[in-house]
Amino acid sequence: DGGITQSPKYLFRKEGQNVTLSCEQNLNHDAMYWYRQDPGQGLRLIYYSQIVNDFQKGDIAEGYSVSREKKESFPLTVTSAQKNPTAFYLCASSIERSATQYFGPGTRLTVL
Amino acid sequence: RKEVEQDPGPFNVPEGATVAFNCTYSNSASQSFFWYRQDCRKEPKLLMSVYSSGNEDGRFTAQLNRASQYISLLIRDSKLSDSATYLCVVVNNDYKLSFGAGTTVTVRA
Predict the structure, then answer these.
(1) How far off is chain A from B16, nearest CA to CA, in Å?
(2) Which helix (H) or strand (E) holds B80?
(3) Of all helices (H) and strands (E), which one includes residue B4?
(4) Residue B46's closest chain A neighbor by CA?
(5) Cα separation of A27 and A4, whole Å?
(6) Distances (CA, A) of A87 to A37, A38, A62, B93, B101
(7) Res A96: pLDDT
(8) Which residues of B touch A30 (CB under 8 A)?
(9) Counting one residue from A and one from B, how many pairs have CB atoms under 8 Å apart?
């Protein structure tokens, strides 16, 4: 089945630790995205990538880093520099940047 | 002013009722518009695109009013399974998506 997978579903982290969230897609989509969702707010773009080995900052990139070494994979690292990392993180992909985006099931990160 | 604004609700309606709500956007150059549905603690899923002439998909009708800069979603003959949060998504001319915070609909038996 084609789709987007994210792991883990739930993640707990101690303050000061870096943590990496996985996002994989087998839809052959060129573009991939990371969003953050907080209660009462719309999704906010962290990073996006239109092709392999290239990515761009979104609106709230501070404290996050990404890589795009393979078309299928777009991992997100939440660093200790991110002040309020507790949130629901959603990965999405689209055929190209102008096309409809499809979302993975999300990772719920909690900082203890 | 937020780029995309929605009434958070909740809209509590009985089964079989019609419910409608709007989403306003601030960028007059916005190109594309969508409604996504998000169930509690799940990912958003595309419900429907919104076309200039308005469009229907079964019990769902979406409309665009460019002059007043809003889109709307109407749900007819509400089902219990329609209970969800509906996200308005606006795409700007640089392909950036802006998301509303969502309108929560609860359909009761």
Answers:
(1) 28
(2) none
(3) strand B4-6
(4) A102
(5) 8
(6) 6, 6, 15, 29, 14
(7) 86
(8) none
(9) 39
Burial class (CB in 10 A: 0-12, 13-18, 19+), A108: middle
B95 and A97 within 8 Å at the Cβ level: the answer is yes
Q: B31 — alpha (psi -120 to 50), left (phi > 0) or beta? A: alpha
Question: A106 contacts in B (CB within 8 Å)?
Answer: 42-43
- Give the E-state strand segments of chain A in sequence order: 4-7, 10-13, 19-25, 31-37, 44-51, 54-57, 64-66, 76-78, 87-94, 102-103, 107-111
For residue B94, give the chain A residue with the closest CA. A98
One-letter amino acid at B49 equals S
- State how far residue A105 is from chain B, nearest Cα, in angstroms: 5
pLDDT of residue B64 exceeding 80, the answer is: yes
pLDDT at B1 (0 to 100):
74
